[in-house]
């Protein structure tokens, strides 16, 4: 029987050719597969698995897990051979062919896992979380392989392993910076900015002429550059976290104002007529009808502001701050060419911002579970 083109078999063929024809090492040590017997076992197991796949015996989630398991073993083996050679920047052709083969296998495996669908909510949610996690791990592997294999200078781009070492050795400094920037400036500025934007939206909705007077001013404030406002806030509120929180308030006020106003007008005309026919007052209609209908828009603003707040606080710290904070650490360590510490701060800021965004998304699911878009995702 004639078999159609199978990407899994293509990836297996590239792996086999790489293993047989080219050394994988670097520099003066031309390491090959026979230098580590386990690598030969991996190649044989991977080829056998792809042979079964071509016969149509395995599909879907098991297929993806087999391929990604092989990619994990192959990636660990490739980095082992590269570090064992001890010649960064001199990786040979075989190494890069092998990395390309792993890329093809990882692509196919992630595609197979992403296509998994199940009525079991827990299993489906686990797969939905597994795909971005595995994709992120693959990007980290590529980052490590490229920086070590090409010998990229640390000043330009340190490898993830160097960043991890710096991160583990500077936990006390990173914790102090996190507390100063996120706990003090971001959280307080986020709460004040979103709360004032929400209150202003209610006021604008209640007093119609403010829509013509306040909204243009809000748009003007939102267009002000951070690098221009941050020094002014420092002069007004001092060098501590209060000036950074003020910048965050400016950045988060307008998105909340606009989204809340849009959400308040999202309630249908039939529902409003029904509330009027029941004799409902403005505040009753607002609380019982219009605010619930506006919740998706309000949470959209909260999610946007969760990332804007972190960016605003870090940038504001470039223009005057005590000797602590993420922005202060980034600006000073760049001057000292300690780029690994800069990347450690960036990783911490990214994790904090992602966690903050995730918390807003979880709150949105809990509050707007009735929304049609959420029901479709479930």
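Sequence proposed for the structure above (378 residues):
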């Amino acid at each position: 029987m004639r078999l159609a083109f199978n990407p899994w078999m293509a990836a297996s063929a590239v792996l086999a050719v790489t293993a047989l024809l080219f050394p994988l090492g670097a520099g003066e040590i031309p390491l090959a597969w026979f230098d580590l017997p386990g690598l030969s076992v991996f190649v044989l197991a991977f080829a056998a698995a792809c042979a079964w796949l071509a016969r149509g015996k395995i599909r879907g989630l098991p297929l993806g897990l087999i391929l990604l398991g092989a990619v994990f073993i192959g990636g660990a083996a490739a980095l082992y051979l590269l570090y064992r050679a001890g010649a960064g920047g001199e990786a040979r052709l075989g190494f890069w062919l092998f990395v390309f083969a792993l890329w093809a296998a990882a692509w196919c495996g992630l595609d197979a896992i992403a296509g998994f669908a199940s009525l079991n909510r827990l299993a489906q949610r686990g797969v939905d979380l597994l795909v971005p996690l595995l994709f992120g791990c693959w990007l980290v592997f590529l980052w490590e392989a490229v920086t070590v294999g090409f010998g990229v200078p640390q000043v330009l781009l340190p490898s993830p392993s160097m960043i991890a070492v710096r991160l583990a050795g500077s936990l006390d400094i990173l914790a102090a910076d996190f507390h100063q920037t996120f706990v003090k400036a971001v959280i307080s500025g986020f709460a004040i900015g979103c709360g004032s934007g929400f209150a202003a939206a209610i006021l604008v909705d209640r007093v119609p002429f403010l829509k013509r007077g306040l909204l243009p001013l809000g748009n003007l404030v939102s267009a002000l550059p951070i690098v221009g406002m941050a020094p002014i806030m420092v002069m007004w509120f001092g060098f501590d976290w209060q000036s950074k929180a003020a910048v965050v308030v400016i950045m988060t006020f307008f998105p909340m104002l606009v989204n809340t106003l849009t959400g308040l007008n999202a309630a249908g005309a039939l529902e409003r007529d029904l509330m009027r026919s029941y004799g409902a007052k403005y505040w009753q209609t607002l609380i019982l009808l219009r605010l619930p209908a506006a919740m998706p828009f309000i949470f959209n603003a909260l999610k946007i502001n969760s990332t804007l707040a972190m960016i605003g606080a870090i940038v504001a710290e470039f223009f005057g701050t005590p000797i602590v904070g993420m922005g202060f650490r980034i600006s000073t360590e760049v001057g000292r060419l300690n780029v690994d510490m800069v990347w450690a701060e960036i990783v911490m800021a990214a994790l904090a911002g992602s966690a903050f965004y995730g918390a807003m998304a979880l709150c949105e699911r809990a509050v707007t579970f009735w929304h049609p878009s959420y029901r479709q995702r479930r």
